[in-house]
Amino acid sequence: MKIVNYKEIEPTRFDNDVAKGVAGRVVIGKADGADNFCMRVFELESNGHTPCHTHDWEHEIFFHAGQGEVLSNGRWTPVSPGTAVLIPGNEAHQIRNQGDAPLVFVCLVPAGAPEL
After folding, report:
1. Which of 47, 57, 56, 53 is nearest to 72 (CA)?
2. I need a labelling partner for 51 at 20 to 30 A (CA). Which of 12, 25, 34, 41 fits?
3. What does R_g of the chain's alpha carbons equal in angstroms?
């Protein structure tokens, strides 16, 4: 068993042409013996965003804090604490922070997908 506060894990930061103000942490992954899924926690700074991208696998996202939007099928949809999202495989998607506080979300991906 592993029990961890995600804030104790050093984040990997992304701040470039395609991603802005993103901090990602693998909280449970292969190194922990998780054979089927990887759990990641992301924090997006105010005005931060993930890249618009696609991949073969589905993933599930749970929004924990902040106010943001998810791009899916060419349309932005608001998200807030308590919102859960399913991104099917091969669907273009992006997440952006629309508030002043960090947008915090948990993202699950299947084994075999890049952990971060």
Report:
1. 53
2. 34
3. 14
Strand 68-72 relative to strand 75-79: parallel, antiparallel, unpaired?
A: antiparallel
Q: Which two tokens stand for residue 100?
A: 């002043």
CA distance 30 to 42: 18
pLDDT in the model for residue 73: 87
Q: What are the structure tokens assigned to 61, written together?
A: 């996202």
Q: Is residue 106 part of a domain?
A: yes
Residue 81 lies in a domain: yes
CA distances from 29 to 36, 51, 62 (A): 9, 22, 17
Question: 21-59: per-residue pLDDT in tens?
Answer: 999 999 999 999 999 999 999 999 999 999 999 999 999
What CATH number did the domain enclosing 102 receive? 2.60.120.10
Number of compact structural domains in the chain: 1
Please check whether residue 5 lies inside any domain of the structure.
Answer: no
* Token reading at 115: 């952990």
